[in-house]
Design a protein that fits this description.
The structure holds 2 protein chains of 2 kinds. Chain A has helices at 28-41, 61-64, 77-87, 99-105, 107-116, 161-168, 181-193, 210-213, 219-229, 261-279; strands spanning 49-53, 68-71, 92-98, 120-126, 172-177, 198-203, 230-232, 248-255. Chain A is globular. Chain A has 10 helices and 8 strands. Helices cover 36% and strands 16% of the residues of chain A. Chain A is α/β, with parallel strands linked by helices. The termini of chain A are far apart. Chain A has one domain: Thiamin diphosphate (ThDP)-binding fold, Pyr/PP domains (Rossmann fold, 3-Layer(aba) Sandwich), CATH 3.40.50.970. In chain A, 54% of the residues are buried. The model of chain A has no long low-confidence stretch (mean pLDDT 96). In chain B, 39% of the residues lie in helices and 22% in strands. Chain B is an alpha/beta fold. Chain B folds into 2 domains: 3-195, Rossmann fold (3-Layer(aba) Sandwich), CATH 3.40.50.970; 276-382, Rossmann fold (3-Layer(aba) Sandwich), CATH 3.40.50.920. The mean pLDDT of chain B is 97. Chain B starts with a helix and ends with a helix. Chain B contains 14 helices and 16 strands. Chains A and B meet through β2, α3, α5 and α10 of A and β2, α4, α5 and β10 of B. β2 (68-71) of chain A pairs parallel with β10 of chain B.
Chain lengths: 280, 385
C-alpha cells in the first residue's frame, strides 16, 4: 500500500479553508503559490506572519494561508494591517488584495500607508475589473474596454499603480504578471525581507469574467498576451510604466532605503521616555 | 516608576471630560490609539498623543475615521487594548468597521463626543443626537455596549469600565459623551493603579491545534488568542463557523452566529446595565435622563421636592443594552415619566417602549444648551398627578 505523501506546500495552506472559490484558470492560484513558495524558501516562522485581505475574489486568500489571518471589510486591509504591525512590530504583516479593494475604495489608505512607510507588504492582484461582482469597471480598467458597467466602453483613465506607489513613497515597488512566476516569487521574497512599505502588483488573468467581456479569451490567451506584451524594464521611470494593450512594463521599479514609521516611532518613544523620566 | 504607575495619573486633578476620558483609557491599559482630528473630541487625541509615548505605547493619526477604527481592530487582534475617539461625522464613517468589530468580536472602545447634527451640523455645539446611531449605525443585527458619563469624574470611570466590558464580552464599547461633558472642567480623583479594577480578555486554555477562535464559553463569549502566539487562526467579516471558516451559504451558520453575537450582550444585560436612582423611593414622577441633561434634571427634581412634589431621577449610565428592566420597574411605580434629551426624540422611544402604559412626556432640546432645570421642573409640575 502506498503511503500518502504530503505536498511540500501543504503545511502553508489551511486545511479547512481549502475549498477555494476561484474559477478555473484564475490567476489568484498562481499568486497564492508564489506567496507560499516565497515563505517556504525563506523558511519563515509561520507563527509570526499575519496575512490580511480585503473583499473580492483574491480577498479569500487570507483564509487559505496557514498563518494568522484576517479578512477585513472592503478597502480596509491596509489600515487594519497598520494597527497589527504597530501593535506588534515583530510580526511580518502582508496585505494581499485586489485592484478595486486597494485602489478604489481603499485608495486613500494605500497612499497614506506608503507615505508613512509602515513596514507592511502589499501585494495587489490586478485583474482590471471587479470579478466577484460580475465584471464591472474599476480603477485599473483600461480605456475603451467594455465591462458590465461600461457597456459603451470605459471613458476613465486607469491608474498606473507602479507610479502611484512610487509617488506615494513606497520603498520597494515591483510589477510582474502571473506568467512570471519565478520572478514574482523572488520579488515577494525580497519584499518580505525588506524593511518598509513594499508594493508588488501582479497582473493577473480573470478568464471567466474579464476574459469574456473583453474577448481576450481563456487563461492561455491571457498568458500569451502577458508573454507578448510584457517588457522587463527594471528601475525605469515609474511614470512611464503605463499598461497598454501592447505593452506591460514589468520589473522592479523602486528599491530604496528610508526609515520606517515603526523605527521613527520607537526612537521617539525612547526620546520621550528619557525626557519624561529625567524631568519628573 | 513602573509603566503601569506612569500610565495612571493618580491624584486629585482639575480636568476636562475629554482629558479625563483619555486618562481613563490609559488607566484601563489602553496602549494603542488611532484617530482623526474632529471637534469636540480632538482633545482626547491630543492627550493620547502626549501621554502614550510616555508609557511606551502607540498613538497614530490616521487618514480618516474608517482607517482609525480599522487600525484599532488590528491592534486589538494583535493583543493591545485599543481606542479611538471622534464626533458625529466621524462616528458615521466608523460604523462600517464597528460592524466588523462586532462580527469578529474585537474588543475595542469608541468614544463619541456628541455635537449637533445632521451632517457637519454645529461642530462646536453640544448634542445627544448620536445615541440611536450607537446602537443601529452599522448594518445587520447586532448588540453593542454604550455608556454615557454625566460628569468629568465619570468620563474617567466609565472609560475604564468601557475597556472592561470590551474585554469581557469581546465587543466594541462606546462612550457616548455629550460635548458639554467633554469640554467641561471639574475635579477628578484618580486612584492609585492598584485600586483600579481592570479586566483582561479571556485567553484560550486549549492548544493551538484544538483552538476554535469563535467557539464560545458558557457566557457566550469565545476566549481570544492574539496574532503571533502560534494559534494561526482566521477571522473574517463574513458569516463564519466556530473555527473561523466563512459560511456564506448556510442558514444555520447565520442563525447560530448572529444570535450568539446578540445574545452574549442580551443575556448578560443584567450584569452590564447600570442606572442611578435618586429620590426614587416614593417618587410619583420620574425624570429619565443621561449625560449633562441628568444634572439639569437633578436640580429640577430637587426643586420639585422642595415644592412638595414626589419627583425622582433615573439617570442612565448604560444606554445600550437599553436598561429595559429598570425602566419597566420604575414605570410600574410612578404615574408619569419625563424624558429630557438634547435631540428631537431618540432614547425616549426606548423609554416609551419599556414604560408600556405609563405616560411619557418628551422634552426635546436642539442646540448647544441643555434644558434649564426650570423647564424640567415646569414639566414635572404640569404633569403632577
Amino acid at each position: 500500500m502506498q503511503a500518502e505523501i504530503a505536498h511540500p506546500l501543504d503545511v502553508y495552506l489551511r486545511e479547512t479553508g481549502m475549498h477555494h472559490i476561484w474559477c478555473t484558470g484564475c490567476g489568484n492560484g498562481i499568486l497564492l503559490n508564489s506567496f507560499v513558495t516565497a515563505m517556504r524558501e525563506l523558511e519563515l516562522n509561520l507563527d509570526k506572519i499575519v496575512v490580511v485581505s480585503g473583499i473580492g475574489c483574491i480577498g479569500r486568500i487570507a483564509g487559505y494561508i496557514n498563518t494568522d489571518s484576517f479578512h477585513t471589510t472592503h478597502g480596509r486591509p491596509i489600515p487594519f494591517a497598520t494597527g497589527v504591525k504597530l501593535a506588534n512590530p515583530e510580526l511580518k504583516v502582508v496585505v494581499i488584495s485586489g485592484d478595486g479593494d486597494l485602489f478604489a475604495i481603499g485608495g486613500n489608505h494605500f497612499i497614506h500607508a506608503a507615505r508613512r512607510n509602515v513596514d507592511i507588504k502589499v501585494i495587489c492582484a490586478n485583474n482590471f475589473n471587479y470579478g466577484m461582482t460580475g465584471g464591472q469597471q474599476g480603477p485599473t480598467t483600461p480605456l475603451n474596454i467594455s465591462t458590465a458597467t461600461t457597456p459603451y466602453g470605459n471613458i476613465e483613465h486607469p491608474f498606473n499603480l507602479v507610479h502611484l506607489a512610487a509617488g506615494s513613497g513606497a520603498v520597494y515597488v515591483a510589477r510582474w504578471t502571473t506568467l512570471h512566476v519565478r520572478r514574482l516569487t523572488e520579488s515577494i521574497k525580497k519584499a518580505l525581507q525588506k524593511e518598509g512599505f513594499s508594493f508588488i502588483e501582479v497582473i493577473s488573468q480573470c478568464p471567466e469574467i474579464y476574459g469574456k467581456s473583453t474577448k481576450i479569451g481563456d487563461a492561455i490567451d491571457f498568458m500569451n498576451w502577458f508573454k507578448k506584451a510584457s517588457e522587463i524594464q527594471n528601475f525605469s521611470d515609474p511614470a512611464k510604466a503605463e499598461i497598454t494593450p501592447d505593452r506591460i512594463p514589468i520589473g522592479e521599479f523602486v528599491d530604496i532605503e528610508k526609515p520606517t514609521y515603526e523605527k521613527l516611532l520607537t526612537e521617539k518613544i525612547v526620546q520621550v521616555q528619557n525626557k519624561t523620566q529625567g524631568g519628573a | 516608576m513602573s509603566e503601569k504607575n506612569r500610565a495612571v495619573f493618580t491624584g486629585k486633578h482639575f480636568l476636562s471630560g475629554d482629558i479625563a476620558c483619555a486618562e481613563g483609557a490609559l488607566a484601563a491599559g489602553c496602549r494603542f490609539f488611532a484617530g482623526y482630528p474632529i471637534t469636540p473630541a480632538t482633545e482626547i487625541a491630543e492627550r493620547m498623543a502626549r501621554r502614550l509615548p510616555q508609557v511606551g505605547a502607540t498613538y497614530i493619526q490616521m487618514e480618516d475615521e474608517i482607517a482609525s477604527i480599522a487600525a484599532v481592530i488590528g491592534a486589538s487582534y494583535a493583543g493591545l487594548k485599543a481606542m479611538t475617539a471622534t464626533s458625529g461625522p466621524g462616528f458615521s464613517l466608523m460604523q462600517e468597521n464597528i460592524g466588523l468589530a462586532v462580527m469578529t468580536e474585537a474588543p475595542c472602545v469608541i468614544v463619541d463626543v456628541m455635537r449637533g447634527g445632521p451632517s457637519t451640523g454645529q461642530p462646536t455645539m453640544a448634542g445627544q443626537q448620536d445615541v440611536m446611531q450607537a446602537k443601529w449605525g452599522s448594518h445587520g443585527d447586532y448588540e453593542i455596549v454604550a455608556l454615557t458619563p454625566s460628569s468629568v469624574q465619570e468620563a474617567f470611570d466609565l472609560t475604564i469600565e468601557a475597556f472592561n466590558y470590551a474585554e469581557t464580552y469581546r465587543v466594541p464599547v462606546m462612550v457616548m459623551m455629550d460635548a458639554i461633558v467633554g469640554h467641561m472642567w471639574e475635579k477628578v480623583i484618580i486612584p492609585p493603579a492598584d485600586n483600579i479594577r481592570i479586566v483582561n480578555r479571556n485567553k484560550p486554555s486549549v492548544t493551538p491545534k484544538e483552538y476554535m477562535p469563535f467557539k464560545p464559553e458558557k457566557n457566550l463569549v469565545p476566549p481570544m488568542a492574539v496574532f503571533g502566539e502560534g494559534y494561526r487562526f482566521h477571522a473574517t467579516g463574513l458569516t463564519h463557523e466556530e473555527d473561523g471558516r466563512p459560511r456564506t451559504e448556510s442558514i444555520k451558520a447565520q442563525q447560530r452566529l448572529v444570535q450568539r453575537l446578540c445574545d452574549k450582550i442580551r443575556k448578560n444585560s443584567d450584569k452590564i446595565v447600570q442606572v442611578k436612582e435618586i429620590m426614587m423611593e416614593d417618587a410619583e414622577v420620574a425624570v429619565v435622563a443621561y449625560g449633562i441633561e441628568s444634572r439639569a434634571a437633578l436640580s429640577a427634581v430637587r426643586k420639585a421636592r422642595s415644592n412638595g412634589i414626589k419627583a425622582g431621577l433615573v439617570r442612565l449610565v448604560t444606554l445600550w443594552p437599553f436598561p429595559e428592566k429598570p425602566i419597566a420597574e420604575v414605570a410600574e411605580k410612578v404615574k408619569m415619566i419625563i424624558v429630557p434629551e438634547m435631540n428631537y426624540g431618540q432614547l425616549v422611544r426606548e423609554v416609551e417602549r419599556a414604560a408600556k402604559a405609563t405616560p411619557v412626556t418628551f422634552l426635546p432640546k436642539l442646540g448647544e444648551e441643555p434644558h434649564r432645570p426650570e423647564e424640567i421642573f415646569e414639566a414635572i409640575k404640569g404633569g403632577k398627578p
